Amino acid sequence: MDGTFLIHVVSAYGVASMDTGSKSDPYVKVLLGDCELGKTAVVKNSLSPVWNYKIKVHLKGPESCVHEEALVFEAFDKDRFTRDDFLGIVKIKFDKIISGEINKVHMLGSRPLPHKDKVAGSLTLEFSYVPGADAGAPAGYIDAHAYHWENGKFRPGSG
């Protein structure tokens, strides 16, 4: 596999209320393994934030890696004085993106036990895949750089 993924974190709907006043200050981290590709802005006092956050990432590795790796979207409530509250997670395998078998709306899920997460709502995400060498992206996409497959996982750099 050698191609560019265009990732668009559009919005969320109905996330859990974690702050006083029945609201949250949500944001989303976009992860590839243990690499953070990017993070949306924090939207204050909202249960249905709109981010329109767009990034592109170039990935290079063996075809088998698309079945092993996934993009991970972790939603959090930003807190000022304490650890940010977990709002939910979505994992999407690369082979689903490449084949176009991916839905636009994804329900937020919980982390494995022993976590006792308060999870509600969904994320709206859009994806495109352009095979071949590092392709350009439409205007508005942030370049999250290149990653290559090494020792069973993606690592930063072109390899």
TrEMBL record:
What are the record keywords, sorted?
A: Calcium, Metal-binding
Q: Which InterPro entries match?
A: C2_dom (IPR000008), C2_domain_sf (IPR035892)
Question: Which stretches make up the C2 domain?
Answer: 1-109
Identify the domain of life: Eukaryota
Database matches in PROSITE patterns = C2 (PS50004)
GO CC annotation, single:
membrane
Question: Which SUPFAM superfamilies does this entry report, sorted A to Z?
Answer: C2 domain (Calcium/lipid-binding domain, CaLB) (SSF49562)
* Record SMART domains: C2
The record's GO molecular-function terms, alphabetically, read: calcium ion binding
Q: Which Pfam families match?
A: C2
Q: What is this protein called?
A: E3 ubiquitin-protein ligase NEDD4
